[in-house]
Amino acid sequence: MRPTATLLPAAIVLGIALICLQATASAAEDKGKSEKTESSERVTLFDFSEADPGKKWITVNDNVMGGRSKGGFTFKGDRLLFAGSTNTNGGGFSSIRTRPVSLGLSGKDGVMIRFKGDGRTYKFGLEMAGSRATYRADFDTKADSKGWQVAKIPFSAFAAGWRGMKLPRDRYPLERGKIDSLGVMIYDKKDGPFRLQIDWIKAYSEE
After folding, report:
1. Measured between alpha carbons, how far apart are the two ends of the chain, in Å?
2. Could you tell me if residue 27 is inside a domain?
3. Domain range holding 197?
4. Number of domains comprising the chain
5. Could you tell me the pLDDT band of residue 9, with boundaries at 50, 70 and 90?
6. CA angle 12-16-19, nearest 5°?
7. What region does 203 belong to: left with phi over 0, alpha with psi -120 to 50, or beta?
8. Which residues contact 177 (CB under 8 A, 6 or more apart)?
9. CA gap 35, 38 in Å, rounded
10. pLDDT tens, 74-132?
């Protein structure tokens, strides 16, 4: 005998269909929330993909004070290369930074940078509109690293200074909404070549 198909009551079929629709809608809602959260937590500031990224950056080396270090930036494949050589018989530093630009960092908790380094220590720098102070925080790199590194630097880690002198943070607070320039500096009191390849720079918030 051939098996007889069992027919489910229409009410049960309708109930199963409603459950499936609700599950699909819930999954879509969760995905939307996840994408929205990711978007709000991290904002790309620079990924060097525009037609002429170099027009937003400038170089400042220790020759402004009679030093002998050399350094600068180039762009290759949507990545910034900061390279040169430091000479401690003088200032001993090389740096690059952006021209003043609106960065929209109000409500953010810090910055992130994805890079390949050379084993030396670099400084991430921030500047505010209307202030002569510079705010810097160190980040270390690995030599001969085949993979990319990411440094996550909270704004609370930045120390205020001016021309090499430390400034009290309580008198010179970092106001996130006024930050209009960022950059990278090497000043580790060592002589020799340096090379830092940067993939992107982002801002992040913890909530």
Report:
1. 65
2. no
3. 43-204
4. 1
5. low
6. 140
7. beta
8. 105, 106
9. 5
10. 999 999 999 999 999 988 999 999 999 999 999 999 999 999 999 999 999 999 999 99
3-state secondary structure the chain: CCCCCCCCCHHHHHHHHHHHHHHHHHHHHHHHHHHHHHHHHEEEEECCCCCCHHHHEEEEEHHHHCCCCEEEEEECCCCEEEEEEECCCCCCCEEEEECCCCCCCCCCCEEEEEEECCCCEEEEEEEECCCCCEEEEEEECCCCCCCCEEEEEEHHHCEEEECCEECCCCCCCCCHHHEEEEEEEECCCCCEEEEEEEEEEEEECCC
- DSSP-derived pairing of the beta strands 110-116 and 80-86: unpaired
Would 65 be classed as within a structural domain? yes
Question: Residue 4 domain-assigned?
Answer: no
Which among 63, 64, 58, 118 is positioned nearest to 87, based on CA atoms?
A: 63
Whether residue 23 lies inside any domain: the answer is no
CATH number of the domain residue 90 falls in? 2.60.120.260
Give dist(CA 133, CA 183) in Å, integer: 14
Q: What does the CA dihedral 86, 92, 96, 100 come to, rounded to 10 degrees?
A: -170
With contact defined as beta carbons under 8 Å apart, do 106 and 177 qualify? yes
> In the numeric block, which tokens belong to residue 103?
């960065």
